[in-house]
Amino acid sequence: MLANAATNLLHGPDETAKAAGAAEAAFERGSLSEDLPTHEVPAAELSAGIVLAALAANAGLAGSRGEARRLAQGGGLRLNDKAETDANRTVSDADLVDGVIKLAAGKKKIVLVKPV
């Protein structure tokens, strides 16, 4: 309601509809939407493996690796909708689902990680 009004004022009705669709897909149905924020990583780097805390920080879900570690320890960091408590876990291309990795901090901050 307030978010829709603010988005409409700043970005217009088309972007408001897109944002509402992405929010519904991500938060109500738990599915992926192409309108979610995306963080691109080199495919070779993902194949070699990236520490979860570093990936979360680089994707903008945490201000630092330390913050990402604390978030994971508290159960607030999710990888493909599964809570991850080990921030030192290695994320690799084996974690890809439909070509992306869904990374979330808390309930509202979601980023799709895509290899390029």
Question: What does the secondary structure layout of this molecule look like, with pairings?
Answer:
Layout: H1 2-11, H2 13-28, E1 38-41, H3 43-48, E2 50-51, H4 52-58, H5 65-73, E3 77-79, E4 82-83, E5 90-91, E6 101-105, E7 109-115
Parallel strand pairs: 1-7
Antiparallel strand pairs: 2-5, 3-4, 3-6, 6-7
Helix pairs in contact: 1-2, 4-5
Report how far apart the termini are.
36 Å
Strand order of the largest sheet: 1-7-6-3-4
CATH architecture of the largest domain: Roll
CATH fold naming of the largest domain? Structural Genomics Hypothetical 15.5 Kd Protein In mrcA-pckA Intergenic Region, Chain A
Total strands: the figure is 7
Strand content: 15-25%
Shape: globular
CATH class of the largest domain: Alpha Beta
Query: Structural class of the helices, strands and pairings?
Result: alpha+beta
Oligomeric description of these chains: single chain
CATH superfamily of the largest domain: RNA-binding S4 domain
Task: Write up this protein.
- Strand 6 (101-105) and strand 7 (109-115) form a beta hairpin.
- The protein has two domains: 1-35; 37-116, Roll (Structural Genomics Hypothetical 15.5 Kd Protein In mrcA-pckA Intergenic Region, Chain A), CATH 3.10.290.10.
- It starts with a helix and ends with a strand.
- 25% of the residues are buried.
- The strands form two sheets. It has a five-stranded mixed sheet with strand order 1-7-6-3-4.
- With 116 residues, the protein is an alpha+beta fold.
- The chain has five helices and seven strands.
- The model has no long low-confidence stretch (mean pLDDT 86).
- The protein has helices spanning 2-11, 13-28, 43-48, 52-58, 65-73; strands at 38-41, 50-51, 77-79, 82-83, 90-91, 101-105, 109-115.
- The protein is globular and about 40 Å long.
- The protein is 41% helix and 22% strand.
